[in-house]
What we know:
Elements: H1 2-11, H2 14-33, H3 35-46, H4 55-79, H5 82-110, H6 115-143, H7 147-173, E1 192-196, E2 205-210, E3 213-220, E4 223-228, E5 242-244, E6 247-249, E7 256-258, E8 264-266, E9 276-281, E10 284-289
Antiparallel strand pairs: 1-10, 2-3, 3-4, 5-6, 6-7, 7-8, 9-10
Amino acid sequence: MASEALIKAVNEQEMLDQLSDKIQPLVLDAFKAAGPTGQEVKNMLHGTWLGHPLHPALTDVPLGAWTAAFALDAMESISGRKELGAGADVAIAVGLVGAAGAAVTGLTDWADTYGRARKVGLLHGMLNAGATVLYTTSLVLRRKKKRGAGLGFAMLGYVVSSAAAYLGGHLVFGEQIGVNHAAAQEMPKEFVPVMADAELKEGEMKRVDAAGVPVLVVRCEGEVCALAHTCSHQGGPLSEGKLEGDIVQCPWHFSRFNVRDGSVVDGPATFPQPSFEVRVREGQIEVRSIDR
């Protein structure tokens, strides 16, 4: 398929890896240098407070505004009504404001990607940056009464932003970036024994199987807690991470979750971990889904 050939071609571009290797550490180090405040800002930009990624919601602003501008420009050309052109100018300006927010959140999400997704994401961002430059140029030309040239730059910007949107769709549906990797598993609705209670020590994490679902069990201050083992961010194995008190940190991208309820403490994860109801019966730890 043409789409598969396109993504394969993008993946073969070594230049994208070279650029990523330079840009990605700069983004991550900038947040780290700001300490706890930097982590709070990073969480906000990821959308941990929202319960899902913030970036996709913000991308609707420039795409919607620039689509409206395209339609208004077309209607002005057909009807000759100048007020339609004025509306297109406003729509372009609104889109540029939205593009700034989408760029900051997108860059934050991209900094926690690797492999092919990182290459596709970088090209996605570069195309969006190019579209923003083209629309900025269009707006400047329009205000200088060079409307014909401004229309040309806007049309080119719309083509480039559409290409960027296509790659953004592939990141979600093809590379599974920004989706909940823990949600696709069928959680047990009835209690299932997973291990002997005596085998789980205080402060210890273990991966167990609950009717085919990998589960993380933790003994924290005497209480046995259980979460989905697969990290909601990008599928990392939580049992291979770090446990600090009642907080588990994913080993892949360092998302942090509360083992008592699965809530996100720090991103890049935005979706909470599914948690389980736990009981000890006849010396066996048993778990079942809370949402039955």
